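User: Could you write out the 3D structure of this protein bound to PBG? I've included everything you need below.
Assistant: Certainly. Input first, then the structure.
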Amino acid sequence: MRTIVVGTRQSALAMTQTLQVIEHLKEISRRDGIECEFTVRKILTKGDQILDVTLSKVGGKGLFVKEIEQALLDGEIDMAVHSMKDMPAELPEGLVIGAVPKREDPRDCLISREGYTKLEELPQGAKVGTSSLRRASQLKHQRPDLQIESIRGNIDTRIRKLEEEGFDAILLAAAGLHRMGWKDRITAYLPADVCIPAVGQGALGIECRGADSFMLELLGKYTDNETKLCVTAERSYLRTLQGGCQVPIGAYARLEPAGEGDNTAPLLTLTGIVGSAVSGELLRETVTGSEPERIGDKLAQSMIALGADRMLAEVAAQP
Ligand SMILES: NCc1[nH]cc(CCC(=O)O)c1CC(=O)O
C-alpha cells in the first residue's frame, strides 16, 4: 500500500481543489485496483505570505509554487495540485506535470454589486477591482471610462472587499468560483473571445517527480487529452514570450470536434493577446494547426513581430 503525500497551499480554493482531485484519484485507483491512500500536507508559499503587495512588483509567477516544488524535489510530498495558470512556463529539472484533468470553465466573470449582467451595463466611470494586468488591459480596451483599481487576496477576501471597499464590480476567474460552489455570486460571464483568459485558466496541473513511475501511472489515467492539447498550446505561447501570470498576456485554445474518418488530426485554434497597461495598446492574433507546441510558438513569434517584446518590457519597467 503506497501512501501518497499531497502538498497544497492552504487557501480555501487550493484545499478544495486538492480534496476534489484526491476524490477522483481514489475512484480511479479503486476502479483499476491500484493500492494507495492519501494524506494532505499544507505548505505556506511566498505568494500567500505577501498578499498585500501587487504581485507584479514582487517577482510574479512561481510565487505560489516554488516552496511546493522544493518539497516535491526533497521527497517530502509526492504530488501537488496547482491551478495551471499559476504554473511558470518551465518546470524545474526532475519534475513533470503528471496529469491535466478536464478543464473547468476558462472564462473570466464579473461579480457586480447591483447585479449587472453585462459589461456594457456598468455605469460610466464605475470602479472595477482586478489585480490582473491582463484583465485590466482588456477591460480598458472595451470600456476606457472604467476606473480600474487593484484588489488583492484570495477569492474569498476579494468578494468581501467588493462590499467593504466600495467597488461596483470585481473580475475573477469563473473556475475558482465554480469549484468553491459560489456560482450564484457570478452576475456575468465575459465571453472567452472578448476577454481572453490567462494561459491555463480553469485547468489544473498535477505535478510529481519525473522518476516516480507509480505516480506517473496513476496520474496518467486522470488526464483529459483535449485539455492537455489546449493547455500545451497555450503554455508553449507563454514559454516563447517568457511571460508570467503578472504580465498582460492571455491565450485560449480550443479543439475543433474531430472530423469524419480515422486519420483526422486534431485542429486547434489558439488566440492570444499581449496588452499594455501603460499605453492601452492591445495585440491580438489567432493561429490554427494540429501541433500544440508549434502553434503556441508560432503565435508568440507573430506577436513579437508586432511589438510584443517592447510592450512587455514597458510593463516590467513600471515603478
Ligand atoms: N491568480 C490566482 C488564481 N489562480 C487560479 C485561480 C482560480 C481559477 C483557475 O483555476 O484558473 C485564481 C483566482 C482568480 O484568478 O480569480
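The mean pLDDT is 91.
User: Perfect, thank you.
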